[in-house]
Amino acid sequence: MIDTVFWPLVKIVVLLNAVMVSVTFMTLLERKVIAWAQSRLGPMRVGPYGVLQAIADPIKLILKEDITPAKADKVMFTLAPIMSLVPAFVVFAVIPFGADPFYYVADINVGLLFIVSVTSIGVYGIILAGWASNSKYPLLASLRASAQLISYEIAVTMTLVSLILTAGTLSMVGIVEAQQEAGVWFGFIQPVAFVLVLIGGLAETNRAPFDMPEAEQELTGGFHTEYSGMRFALFFLAEYANMIVISAVIVVLFWGGWLRPFPSVDALAVLDYIPQWCWFFFKMFMVLYLFIWIRATLPRYRYDQLMRIGWKVLIPIAIANVVITAVVKVLL
Amino acid sequence: MATESAAMFDTDELVLNMGPQHPSTHGVLRLVLRLDGERVKDVDVVMGYVHRGIEKLSENRDWTQIILLTDRMDYVAAATNNLGYCETVEKLMEVEVPRRARYIRTILAELQRIASHCLWLGTHAMDIGAMTVFLYAFRERELILDLFEEYCGARLTYNSMRIGGLPLDLPSGWDAKVRAFCDIMDSKVEEYEELLTNNRIWLQRTRGIGVISGPDATALGLCGPPLRGSGVYRDVRKDEPYAAYDEFEFDVPLGTRGDTYDRYLIRLEEFRQSIRIIRQAVDGLPEGPIMGKVPRLLKPKAGETYHAIESPKGELGYFIASDGRSTNPYRFRVRPPSFCNLQGLRPLVIGHLVADVVALIGTLDVVLGEVDR
User: Fold this and answer.
1) Cross-chain Cβ contact A296/B132 below 8 Å
2) Which residues of A are less than 8 Å from B358 in CB distance?
3) Chain A residue closest to B21 (CA)?
4) From the centroid of its chain, how far is CA B197?
5) H-type helices in B30-173, by residue range?
6) Maximum CA pair distance of chain B?
7) Phi, psi (degrees; rounded to nearest 5) at B334
8) ipTM surpassing 0.90
């Protein structure tokens, strides 16, 4: 009883809170990193070097008036932010932060499939938000979100197939263990797949250069134009939680999860003194930093251009990657 | 069959109101878009939200007081507005402006061109999603504003010229600061180019977007970079030199395709040409008075005149009529380049997507204060 109910519940509570706190500090990190990229200081007023800005923002958003437009579909309007937030949090259940079962909530044998299917639900939140707002800009944004979904989702899933072929398992823990056995991170075996998943991850989380559904300059905020207060904050939370999820998935799939660099080289065994979860968070941080860096650098694609990239470039490459992986696997 | 399916799947135009309060309509421009999906079928450009009646106001002001009003037309390029107005009155009164004053005016006008283009580059790139360029461009604009502040005390509405010359001579050490700025700007233009010129996303977002041919651009009355982007050689600085432009060497960049990317390249090249002009002017700055012989009470003889200059946005012309009796103009009329360029928006936008609309507003570089006056 204690093992099957109590400990998982404790882990879930801790994990949920950890994710929420890291999301708020993620916003601070993003603002700071972008500010440095743009030769500014970023938030400096709240606390030393603005570190308490991460606390001040949620407080402000909670205190703000929560407006529901008169002509909005009330049920859907309320449901949409929840729908985009919950999947992002659920995915954390199968992310292994360390080898010991203490470091993950569940290790299900179809972990990767679970992640792919649950994260796809998140975009419904955006589509419904745009639809339920009963306003033109959010409507256009939700159209963009659906177009975006079908363009990247297939390519990413295809890419994951080639990775599953390499790892021989769908379990997230199993994938990391496979990398330990192979003695090399899959990012070096499957560099093409990494790039594809990274691009797909940017599209999945609506990050620049694929932030069309919320394109502030075009659609004045897109799907969350009509949202305010905490409901708006939920979308924000979802976006950043999604970013953390995607970076965690990328770390597990390509960068060896909790493994230290060169897991097969015994000479570097001294690195094992650094706890496994530290390696995990360090790698995750690097991927998140890459996301922010990309946002600071690149202009935005047009949504028809994303569709063209998705269908004409990413999917053929992904399929070719699967075929090549399969052939190599059979030959070896 | 075709009509039947059309009746079954009824399609409807989406009328989308963009502006006057929209982050990308640069002020208070309002567009009423008729959309088919995200494709623009038609657009109504609505303006007039910052109409302050500057032309009519000017008919009730002293000749010198009008300089203040011209500041407030194209408020991101106040110095060139001053220059155009002062030269027009000087032309009407046949006043000779000292050579030193003409040189300083040229320096101010070119600094202003760089500042205005910085603002254009920043907002244009921001509209297309490159947020960092915005802050980089504003960082350099800040340097120019500092230079202007040191010269005339103001940072936005300069009131920096007088009929017949200039109100102030250069502060000591100012020319060295301008030289230093030119050196900084040279490397910064490279930096902008690095971020955008060969960026694949930037190319995809600007190549072939808003193409307009040379004859069409001329027929629409476009001017400045949008006109030169279509390959039409027209630059008032070369064609009808004013201030001291006939004494300097500079090139007029021309585009070949007439798309958004060409207009972007032209403005970037204009950065370099402006720097070149400023360097020549600072190096050859003559000594002498800064004010010509102007009567204390300005009362031009009866007559009318038109004079145009090349403002950062394009051909800025002033038409002034004097009745010879009063101390204010009988008729004051501005040919604002932003207004003429805004006319090009509708033909450019039709057939493109909503995402391109903001790019096209940016590429025309309109300032609503000048459009509405």
Assistant:
1) yes
2) 217-218
3) A220
4) 22
5) 54-58, 66-71, 78-93, 99-127, 131-152
6) 84
7) -115, 140
8) no
CATH 3.10.28.10 for the B2-372 domain, yes or no: no
Residue-level pLDDT at B9: 66
Q: Could you tell me where the DSSP H helices lie in A38-135?
A: 53-63, 74-90, 111-132
As a whole number of angstroms, the distance between CA A159 and CA A318 comes to: 5
Q: Do B136 and A301 touch (CB under 8 A)?
A: no
Identify the CA nearest to B228 among candidates B240, B218, B237.
B218
The helix (run of H) or strand (run of E) holding residue B306 is: strand B303-311
**Does A302 sit within 8 Å of B204, measured CB to CB?**
yes
The residue count for chain B: 373
| Cβ density class B70-92: b for 16+ within 10 Å, e for less | bbbbbbbbbbbbbbbbbbbbbbb
Cα–Cα distance for residue pair A216/B128, rounded to 1 Å: 10
**End-to-end Cα distance, chain A:** 46
- pLDDT level of residue B1 (50, 70, 90 thresholds): very low
- Bridge-based pairing state of the strands B303-311 and B39-46: unpaired
Domains: count for chain A? 1
B125 in contact with A at a CB cutoff of 8 Å? yes
Is residue B203 less than 8 Å (CB to CB) from chain A?
no
CB of B126 within 8 Å of a chain A CB? The answer is yes
Question: Which residue in the block uniquely carries the two structure tokens 């720097």?
Answer: B275
What are the structural domain ranges in chain B?
2-372
Listed residue (B291, B281, B323) closest to B90, CA to CA: B291
Cα distance from A65 to chain B (closest Cα, Å)? 22
Q: Do B16 and A136 touch (CB under 8 A)?
A: yes
Residues in chain A: 332
How many percent of chain B have pLDDT more than 90? 12
Q: Indicate if the alpha-carbon torsion angle A184, A190, A191, A196 is positive or negative.
A: negative
Place of tokens 């975009």: A123
Q: B24: closest CA among B373, B363, B370, B369?
A: B363
Residue B6, classed as helix, strand or coil, is helix
Q: With CB atoms and an 8 Å threshold, state whether A305 touches B195.
A: no
Q: For residue B178, what is the enclosing H or E element?
A: helix B174-196
How far is the CA of A47 from the CAs of A23, A52, A53, A55, B321, in angstroms?
18, 5, 7, 10, 61
Strands B39-46 and B30-36: antiparallel
Cβ pair A301:B201 closer than 8 A: yes
| Residue of A207, A298, A303, A312 to mutate, testing the B interface (most B Cβ within 10 Å of its Cβ) | A298
DSSP A106: -
Residue A226 half-sphere exposure, CB side, CA atoms within 13 Å?
A: 27
Query: In sequence order, which residues have a C-beta less than 8 Å from that of residue B140 and are 6 or more positions away?
Result: B114, B118, B184, B185, B188
CB contact under 8 A, B355 and A211: no
Summarize pLDDT for A36-88 with one digit per residue, the tens.
888 888 888 888 888 888 888 888 888 888 888 888 888 888 888 888 888 88
